[in-house]
Specification:
It comes from Streptomyces armeniacus. This is DUF3592 domain-containing protein. Keywords: Membrane, Transmembrane, Transmembrane helix. The protein has a domain of 70 residues. It has four helices and five strands, in the order H-H-E-E-E-E-E-H-H. The chain has a five-stranded antiparallel beta sheet. Strand 1 and strand 2 form a beta hairpin. The radius of gyration is 27 Å and the shape is elongated.
């Protein structure tokens, strides 16, 4: 009887050791690479959310309303995506207390299709503490801003999905791992579409 009761205990020990075994090198490498890209996408997305949405939105919230009149748009430099475009013009607040000349638009896409001398509603901040900020604030400008925020959020969510894949790589094969992979796959595709659609529309990639 003593030997029979000892058998279950001896069977459990190898299972405990197996559970503590380290990941195979290939899976550990895969998890590490995925985690690296997850952090990169997450940090980039959060940074874009601040620079492309929150900071411009603060200009609309705190700045003075007025009119921006386009002076010129210049195409300089070059890359695989083509030369960069910079648009300049003058801003005058509705109450006449703030006038800014030869001001560069933060988002040149906001002047897409415009000719020199044409104008749009905008908000601007005083250059008291650093360079002035100006954001197009009519329906088109607010739509562009929203889409840039959606794109940044999509990139951050993509990073979170990749982080989930990195964690999934450490799990033992089984139904739970398969279900997690399916949900993460759906989330990855959705996040990537939000990123491309938001930045492409709000930033002018598809214009």
């Amino acid at each position: 009887m003593a030997s029979e009761t000892g058998v279950p205990g001896s069977d459990e020990q190898p299972q405990a050791r197996t559970a503590r075994e380290p990941l195979p090198p290939a899976r550990r490498k895969k998890a590490g690479i995925t985690a690296f890209f997850a952090v990169l996408a997450l940090v980039s997305g959060i940074g874009l959310l601040k620079t492309d949405y929150l900071d411009p939105k603060s200009v609309i919230d705190d700045g003075r309303p007025g009119v921006f009149t386009l002076d010129r748009c210049e195409r300089t430099g070059g890359s695989k995506q083509g030369p960069s475009t910079f648009c300049h013009g003058d801003f005058r607040s509705d109450d006449g207390t703030l006038k800014l000349t030869d001001l560069r638009l933060e988002e040149s896409h906001d002047a897409e299709g415009m000719e020199s001398g044409e104008s749009f509603t905008a908000h601007a901040t005083r250059p008291d503490h650093g360079p002035p900020g100006l954001i197009r604030s009519d329906d088109q400008g607010r739509s562009n801003l929203t889409m840039r925020g959606v794109g940044a959020l999509g990139l951050a969510l993509l990073g979170a999905m990749l982080g989930g894949f990195a964690w999934r790589a450490t799990l033992a094969p089984g139904p739970a791992r398969s279900r997690l992979g399916a949900w993460l796959g759906f989330g990855t595709v959705t996040s990537a579409l939000l990123w491309l659609l938001g930045m492409g529309t709000g930033g002018g990639f598809w214009a």
